[in-house]
Amino acid sequence: MGKRQYxxxxxxxxxxxxxxxxxxxxxxxxxxxxxxxxxxxxxGLPRIPTNVLSTRLKELEAAGIVxxxxxxxxxxxxxxxxxxxxxxxxxxxxxxxxxxxxxxxDPRPDEIVTxxxxxIALRSAFRxxxxxxxxxxxxxxxxxxxxxxxxxxxxxxxAGVGAAPEAEPxxxxxxxxxxxxxxxxxxDAGTALDEGLVAVTGPKELLAVxxxxxxx
Amino acid sequence: MGKRQYxxxxxxxxxxxxxxxxxxxxxxxxxxxxxxxxxxxxxGLPRIPTNVLSTRLKELEAAGIVxxxxxxxxxxxxxxxxxxxxxxxxxxxxxxxxxxxxxxxDPRPDEIVTxxxxxIALRSAFRxxxxxxxxxxxxxxxxxxxxxxxxxxxxxxxAGVGAAPEAEPxxxxxxxxxxxxxxxxxxDAGTALDEGLVAVTGPKELLAVxxxxxxx
DNA sequence: CTGGATCCCTCACGATACTG
DNA sequence: CAGTATCGTGAGGGATCCAG
Lengths: 216, 216
Description:
The structure is a homodimer.
Chain A: H1 11-19, H2 24-33, H3 38-44, H4 50-62, E1 66-70, E2 78-82, H5 84-87, H6 90-101, H7 115-125, H8 128-131, E3 136-143, E4 146-153, E5 156-161, E6 171-175, H9 179-183, H10 189-194, E7 198-201, H11 205-213
Parallel strand pairs in A: 3-6
Antiparallel strand pairs in A: 1-2, 3-4, 4-5, 6-7
Chain A binds a DNA duplex through helix 3 and helix 4.
């Protein structure tokens, strides 16, 4: 296993040997959001062949990046989660995501948005500096049937899949692929509302707060 | 070209579509050190098939990551260099290199060290915080016939291939693969000297400075 | 010599069907 | 639900060859 070697004694080489294979980093992306079962991973990566998913999980486990854990009875199901070493890829994934976002352009005809990718996008875009002056605010972001939430408090972001837990969001933002332009700072909050790129439920001013907190 | 798509509208997906193919990030690594000709790249990546190198360069050029430039006569040769967008991968490459270095272990039988990978390793390991208190110091690092230099001044690192330019190094460090353990902080400067893991020419105290400035 | 192009072979990947 | 089995395709590996 791992026959695809590059023949160099170098940290970057080792990294691409471990997570450079096709689909590997996307599996890590989804596991950064939350531990998942095989089927959840498959749903989040609809185009991955099942044998490739299976192979990658074994490779990532052998590399100490992913752990396979059995859930307590009665379901006795399997969950995959990142080890501490695997979770240390978060900075890399966020940085790569920011860099790649600059080439995003418009969605291709067959491209989808998944909840996990949207959570990672929010984490990528989060600006801790701007958040330091912000007290406590909850957003819910809806793109089609993809719903994610973000809670900023004490300069720290908590983002996850689904509606905001524990408390009602201060602002609900509904949008589409145009959210990319908003996050990229290509249109400001007012313009986005005026042109119908986004619709909000809640105090409109909070959309400007959102664009200040999240910027790709 | 670029038919290998993942079907998701996501920054990370776009990033791996652009630089996730085999060898791509290693080409970027070497170009981060300096612009290079085709043959230089080939020498720095001895195991890359020439058709793959050629294909990658075209893909990277099409993606706006690499630029092809013709040198002035009389040699009229071609140089590949990173665009600004491509150079923005430096943080990602250094972070990935740091992460992967933790899985380095010992060199495999057929693994080599190249000058460019060593320069990137030094940049990965550089701790700007520790350097802020350091005035001005030049190192030359020799591993077999691989020679690189590092100059730290005003908290800024300048590292490149070959002997230190402009001035004699304050300390010449000769070592082998054991340099990894030193950079990882697994052995301190004194022990490394005592056990013969490294040999120096110059004031021995400067080796402790080196281990403070560079830590993986 | 540089900067590739071409050939062949293998294996990883992609797609789909199937199973405990 | 959580994978394994099967099979076709094409990218990558390796050697060689060629034009400027």
